[in-house]
Amino acid sequence: MTFDQQPKYGHLKKLHAAVNLCSDTLLYGTQTIISLGALQQAYVYKRETNECAAFLVNTDGAYDANVQFQNQTYKIPQKSISILPDCKTEAFNTAKVSSKESIRTRTPIVKANRYLTYYLWYTTSYEQSEEQSTTIRVNSRGHVLRAFVNGEFIGVNDISMLSIMIGLPDSGAYMESRASGLENVRIGEKDLSNLSWGYHYQVGFKGEMLQVYTKHGSRKAKWNKFASSSQPFKWYKGNDPVAVNLGSMGKGEVWINGESIGRYWISFLNPQGSPSQIWYHIPRSFLKPRDNLLVMFEEEGGNPLGISVDTVSVAMT
Prior knowledge:
GO terms for molecular function: beta-galactosidase activity. The protein is mainly β.
């Protein structure tokens, strides 16, 4: 099911209707340009059958204009065009948006997740014929976007988009109006922006909800013995107090005893072709004499077997 984008849809619908009323006159009539003021003109089209259509134009970017045209006064808002299909009655003005239809809005990611997570899932279904070969295109204001499709090109396909934020802005102008998340999605020439993405949000990951990075929360999850894999979005757990070299990982976050020691993005390289940081310090205040819990969330896959670690030793006096 699709939804009209209002008020844009209603405004353009009325524009098309107004132009259609005088389409024959525009196609077969003769054009005359009449000055109505310093920044105002009338574009008049007339046919031999005396049918007439006019476009009254106000190019003034600061002020509305009252103009005289064929012994009548017309008020034209700044930087707008009025359409008179019969050279008398104004049927449409580009600046007057009068559509009363309900407006459908999308929830910004920073409101949907209520600042509890940097992740927001969008899910919808799309019907694809067997003969078509298409490309999906997405515009997003998020910092990172991961896309998942079920791999089948026949019938209804379930599509999921994971919008990811790398923190939130803390400075600059108009912070209250900044938005993140999906703007539009297209498969070939079909716009999927109006599909039911907005009613299929899933905020964050189950591991975040369970707080598996804490000692109590880690007991709620089912942990498997490590097996090397490039599959993304995995949680890793260890039990040693360490300083971590994450040079073999991709992108994610690390917790020690339930405290985040930071997000890492090793796969994002600087102009010299190297990551800006691979070593991540564990503050001593985060550590316990024993039974320290180390949990990692890796978004891209990475290879935890390539992580080098240094045991943190504390001198006792």
